[in-house]
């Protein structure tokens, strides 16, 4: 049975081209700065985002952690979304390892953080308070693309308040491809940007932290401190080069798949497709809590994998074919048709 895995875009397997590039990669000791493939990937990422430098790291979590450790010191504070990955899904790393306090704020409906609310959360210069240093935005946020106009305002705001601005751009290319604008129109507003190679771009491992020369030099130091200095990492970076070279433009296909999936699911009675959903490669649906378990089991028996919940995030990616979308919609239809006929009996 073919498996259609909609749990995340992290589940993609490296392509044949990636495996070939990994096998053939020229390598050296990256802690000595001598791995040519890592150096090439770092130059490539920095070039694409028009930042001065970039750092190849093991994961998006490590990338955000290094950014926080570099921008903030002990007793400093960063402002981030309540549901942001950095605050919520990274084990509190900045607090654990850096003595850095988060100030979470609710995201707005469109995935932005309201600048007025941020202004209200910035601490006065007073011994009672942590020092507010940094704002972290996320783009895409829950699959939503932040408006460029908002980014411009956020950057001006951060400058005015003397705060640094970091972007958790795990899916920054989904945002730029969706907007049909160069990725630099997003990255230019930020002091640092983290992006994931291992999500929609399809690499098996890795993220890139991008920023200024001094910032990346300091982040490189922190990377070693947290045990992230890898040696012949070129075997991994080689897949990252292919991801950045060949897999950016094709994200549009994933967005089309999500759009078709959303359209198909909207026709089904028994589930609700979230509004503002399906902007990029994710569709969010809601189902009644009484059916969560049986729905997941029905899907699993037919090869469709999801993460259970009342609000279900369906993520499409390279390893989901366009033709798989119709299959997924049919399997959902079947389930709710049976539910309805059961309810009538
Ligand atoms: C996946 C993700 C990360 C972290 O990436 P890992 O490689 O899983 O550690 C960070 N931010 C966002 C928004 C993500 O989706």
Descriptive keywords:
single chain, 345 residues, alpha/beta, Aspartate Aminotransferase, domain 2, Aspartate Aminotransferase, domain 1, 2 domains, seven-stranded mixed β-sheet, three-stranded antiparallel β-sheet, 14 helices, 12 strands, binds pyridoxal-5'-phosphate
Which helices and strands occur, and which strands form pairs?
Layout: E1 4-5, H1 16-24, H2 36-49, E2 53-57, H3 60-71, E3 76-81, H4 85-88, H5 93-98, E4 101-105, H6 115-121, E5 131-138, H7 148-160, E6 164-168, H8 172-179, H9 184-187, E7 192-196, E8 207-211, H10 213-225, H11 234-246, H12 251-266, E9 271-273, E10 282-287, H13 292-301, E11 304-305, E12 311-315, H14 322-344
Parallel strand pairs: 1-11, 3-4, 3-5, 5-6, 6-7
Antiparallel strand pairs: 2-8, 7-8, 9-10, 10-12
Bound molecules: pyridoxal-5'-phosphate (PLP).
């Amino acid at each position: 049975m073919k498996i259609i895995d909609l749990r995340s875009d992290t589940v993609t397997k490296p392509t044949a081209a990636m495996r070939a590039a990994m096998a053939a990669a020229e390598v050296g000791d990256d802690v000595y700065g001598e791995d040519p493939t890592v150096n090439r990937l770092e130059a490539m990422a920095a070039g694409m985002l028009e930042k001065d430098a970039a750092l190849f790291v093991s994961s998006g979590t490590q990338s955000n952690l290094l950014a926080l450790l570099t921008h903030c010191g002990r007793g400093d504070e960063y402002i981030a979304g309540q549901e942001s990955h950095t605050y919520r899904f990274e084990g509190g790393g900045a607090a654990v390892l850096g003595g850095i306090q988060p100030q979470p704020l609710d995201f707005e409906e469109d995935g932005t953080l309201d600048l007025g609310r941020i202004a209200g959360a910035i601490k006065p210069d007073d011994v009672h308070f942590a020092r507010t240093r940094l704002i972290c935005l996320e783009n895409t946020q829950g699959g939503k693309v932040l408006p460029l106009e908002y980014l411009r305002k956020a950057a001006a705001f951060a400058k005015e308040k003397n705060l640094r601005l970091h972007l958790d751009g795990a899916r920054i290319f989904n945002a730029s491809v969706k907007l049909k604008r160069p990725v630099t129109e997003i990255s230019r507003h930020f002091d640092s940007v983290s992006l994931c190679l291992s999500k929609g771009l399809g690499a098996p491992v890795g993220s890139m932290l991008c920023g200024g020369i001094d910032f990346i030099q300091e982040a490189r130091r922190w990377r070693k401190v947290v045990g992230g200095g890898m040696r012949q990492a070129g075997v991994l970076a080689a897949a990252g080069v292919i991801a950045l070279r060949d897999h950016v433009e094709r994200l549009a296909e994933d967005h089309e798949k999500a759009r078709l999936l959303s359209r198909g699911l909207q026709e089904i009675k028994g589930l609700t497709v979230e509004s503002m959903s399906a902007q990029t490669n994710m569709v969010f649906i809601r189902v009644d809590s009484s059916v969560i378990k049986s729905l997941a089991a029905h899907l699993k028996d037919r090869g469709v994998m999801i993460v259970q919940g009342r609000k279900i995030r369906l993520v499409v990616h390279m390893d989901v074919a366009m033709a798989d979308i119709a299959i997924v919609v049919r399997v959902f239809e079947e389930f709710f048709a049976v539910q309805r006929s059961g309810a009538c009996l």
